[in-house]
Amino acid sequence: IQTALEENFVFKDLTRQQLTPFIAAFDRKTFEQGEKITEQGDPADYFYIIERGAVVFEVNGIEVGTAGGGSSFGELALIYSSPRAATVVALERTSVFRVEREIFSSILQSQAEKSEDSKIAILRKVIFLKDLTDSDLKKLAMAMTPMFFERGELLIRKGDVGEDFFILEEGEVLVRDISMGSTVYEDVTLGPGEYFGERALAKSEPCEANVSSTKKGMAFKIKFITFNKVLGKMSKLI
């Protein structure tokens, strides 16, 4: 359990000491071949770690992926209090460790709320923010909220009005279909520490590219309205 949690981006900042009581709360359950572990559309009740065996993920009856021992699933539905996005079926006799949503939520809260100093350090790596005062950075840090995403999610749609600025903490995104006027640019892949969404905010124009996740992860986002309240018109910075 500990190894699986340490490899899951949601828990990567927790120490082993912090994980110990969380690990103790897991119980073990076995599913036979063909048995459903979760059902698409059902309320989220558990976070799962596969001990041994294998599962298949199905969306609207279509297979979208598989996973085996050491893999985990079910965290995003718990994070967002949303229905299960996929049906998970045991491909063979499969044993899992699972923990209830209430316990999951309590440990998640302590992890997601990074310290103020950590958030300020993240902001200082953004080129157009590096010269801001400590006071301004502190205000922005207070407005940073974590957003978790799965692989294949569309985070920004080309043509939509930009409302958020994103800084990647974990995962990877693809910026594609980039065009500015009559000029078309090559796709760009962004990873942890990189950011996107600033140009649409600065220019108050529709987004000039689609941005989708190629790996599951987490980004901090700050609302455009927050930038303007704290710093004035964002175009002055970029």
UniProtKB/TrEMBL annotation:
Per UniProt, residues of the Cyclic nucleotide-binding domain are 10-125, 128-238
| Annotated SUPFAM superfamilies | cAMP-binding domain-like
Task: Kindly name one Pfam family recorded for this protein.
Answer: cNMP_binding
Q: Which domain of life is it from?
A: Eukaryota
Q: Name one GO molecular function term.
A: protein kinase A catalytic subunit binding
Cellular component (GO) terms are: cAMP-dependent protein kinase complex; cytosol
Q: Which PROSITE patterns match?
A: CNMP_BINDING_1, CNMP_BINDING_2, CNMP_BINDING_3
Q: Tell me the InterPro entries matching this sequence.
A: cAMP-dep_PK_reg_su-like (IPR050503), cNMP-bd_CS (IPR018488), cNMP-bd_dom (IPR000595), cNMP-bd_dom_sf (IPR018490), RmlC-like_jellyroll (IPR014710)
Q: What is this protein called?
A: Cyclic nucleotide-binding domain-containing protein
